[in-house]
Design a protein that fits this description.
Elements lengths: L1 H14 L4 H8 L5 H13 L5 H12 L5 H10 L4 H11 L4 H12 L7 H13 L4 H9 L8
Helix pairs in contact: 1-3, 2-3, 4-6, 5-6, 7-9, 8-9
Length: about 150
């Protein structure tokens, strides 16, 4: 049974990086919790599974279109610990949050908000993508083509 668990875990990891919590959830129907923990610990020891790599991979693939708070929430849902999330976001996401928000905004909207209703609609869109309210306010306040940071 343990070999089947190991093979299934390796198949999952071959498709994409998974966190420990994701593997536990996906392998739950195939064995006991102790067997699953043992297999995952073995995979971690041989460097086939790493929560750090899984977090980095997720941020790399989703970071261009999501804000820091949405990435934080998604990583927590995937079972990544807070210290790892903070380190990943501080290194890869937070330094260019304003620029990423500007790119996401520009893909969706062609013009700056013309009235309060339009401003609220654009702000809700960016907020849903996980951008901070101060970033949203600065972005929607500035005229297009200028950068005040």
């Amino acid at each position: 049974m343990s070999n089947d668990l190991r093979q299934q875990a390796i198949r999952l990891l071959a498709r994409r990086e998974h966190t420990r919590a994701e593997l536990v959830r996906k392998l739950a129907a195939l064995g006991t919790r102790e067997e699953i923990d043992s297999v995952i610990t073995e995979l971690q020891a041989s460097n086939l599974q790493s929560d750090s790599r899984a977090a980095e991979s997720y941020v790399r693939s989703h970071g261009a279109r999501l804000g820091a708070s949405r990435l934080r929430q998604d990583l927590k849902t995937r079972g990544v610990v807070d210290e790892l999330i903070d380190a990943q976001l501080d290194r890869d996401v937070l330094p260019d949050e304003m620029e990423r928000a500007r790119v996401v905004w520009a893909r969706k909207f062609s013009a700056a908000p013309s009235d309060a209703r339009d401003w609220a609609r654009q702000a809700r869109f960016l907020q849903g993508r996980g951008f901070a309210s101060d970033v949203i306010r600065r972005l929607l306040k500035e005229p297009m083509g200028t950068t005040e940071e």
